[in-house]
Amino acid sequence: MMPRVNRIHPSSSVAIPIVASRELAQAPQLVVRFGVAPDGLPWHLRVDRSRELAKLFRAVCEVFGVRQREELPLRVLGAVENHVASGLMGIHTIELDSESGAREVYVSRRAIRDLLGPTLLSQVIASTASPSSPRTALSSLPAIDDDAEAVSTVAAIAASQGDEALASAVEQAIVDGRSSRRLLVPLVEAGPLSGAVNDDVRVLRAPRGPFRPLIEERMTALGAVEAVVRSNLPPARVPLADADALGEAIRRVQQDRYGGTVEFEAPRAGILAGLAEIAAGLEGLHASERVHADLSPGNVLFTADAPVIFDSLDVVAGSPATTATFSWAAPEQIIGHPLDPRADVFALGKLATRILGGVPFGEQTHYVVPVGGSAARTVELLKCEGVFVDVSGGARSRPWQIAWQEFLGRCLAYDRTRRPESGRAFADGLRELLEAYPPTGGISFAGSFGQIVEVEQGGARGSARLCAD
Question: How far is CA 436 from CA 366, 397, 403, 429, 430, in A?
Fold first, then answer.
């Protein structure tokens, strides 16, 4: 589970110097700025390839029987410096489009989700999980991080049906699943991008398209978020929208000899309002009789304007999906049955249940899924009969409880005919509840998208988020 707080270290006499991104092609050890973090702090990337380069030149010198790289034959030295070393440092030339032309970029070694941290919704959802909760398929079904494994499960079903078109789609999904998206930082002044790198390309990691602009999230999109900054000084609760007050609170902690911590608290009502926007954003997809089929927390970004939904499987209604993220997929998707927009409603309902702290209940069964060869996997399914929301010890009324339980129970129903028919219907129902029976309280999370550090650029010091590649 992700940490609930983020450590702030005491300030030092030397702040981290920031350089221009063009130096990524030359310097093996440096820090560059590439964007703005979700809490509004500048976002920086620490790159260190000094050890790898030292090993490279030691090996080349040993092969040619010389002690120093300058003693190498000029053609060898030029080839190593201009091609091998450049690739080792992650510098590649990509063609974005006919208008932009070729562009040199730095390609991160780590995948974006590991480098920049989970999405905001992933962090919020992870913070709602309780280690002491009883195990149920809907609330704690093991997450499948390996896309290829999830694909192979449905691939076996496709093969057993003898569906050639579906089998071909599965094969392409397996290829895509063996790659991960990386951060691309242009060496000239331009916004960061993302591109795919096959996982078997371990050294030079040449990126391939589609290349997409990096979409930056904003915590303020979750509502009136507060930062809770703690140290030996009295705790400070600061509205995230007040950037000056947040910066001052962080500076106070950095001046404490022991440092401190920071965590964030987002209102449940604000998060659920964002979930309604996500559901409404599916209107066009559902109207065209297609299904996203992968509405997991990692596939939603809360930006300054509106939530962005990505990596849709774009399943034609009436067809099974070629893959599934089992933790959030509807029961009919897991067992390979044809889908319709109500599969997305199930995922939306599960997200809402976790945000509100509800507990699904019903008969739990097991489904054995072939995964290729003679192997099989047992998947737990909950034939949900309803959702319980605890109101004891609080100010929430019985009508409040009944209204939320009825709505969430319909969304998670094993019988999909009971669910709202589309994302728009879900959004309308959720918004009505938020107006008539608004939830109270908030969800605390660490904000795991880099360490908070002191940086220096142009003679000025300030706080920033730092990610290490």
Answer: 38, 12, 9, 11, 10
Position 146 confidence tier, pLDDT thresholds 50, 70, 90: very low
Q: How far is CA 372 from CA 152, 169, 173, 375, 453, in A?
A: 7, 16, 16, 6, 48
Which token pair is 210? 């589609």
325: left (phi over 0), alpha (psi -120 to 50) or beta: beta
Whether this prediction's pTM lies above 0.90 is answered by: no
Domain architecture of the chain: domains with CATH: 121-178+269-444 (1.10.510.10)
Q: What percent of the chain has pLDDT over 90?
A: 47
**Under 8 Å between Cβ of 279 and 430:** yes
What are the backbone angles phi and psi of residue 182, rounded to the nearest 5°?
Answer: -120, 160
At 19-42, the pLDDT tens digits run: 888 888 877 789 999 999 999 999
Express each pLDDT in 181-191 by its tens digit: 899 999 987 89
**With the C-alpha atoms ordered 249, 251, 257, 259, is the resulting torsion angle positive or negative?**
positive
Closest CA to 414 of 335, 330, 340, 355: 330
The string of pLDDT tens digits covering residues 442-467 is: 999 999 999 998 888 887 888 999 99
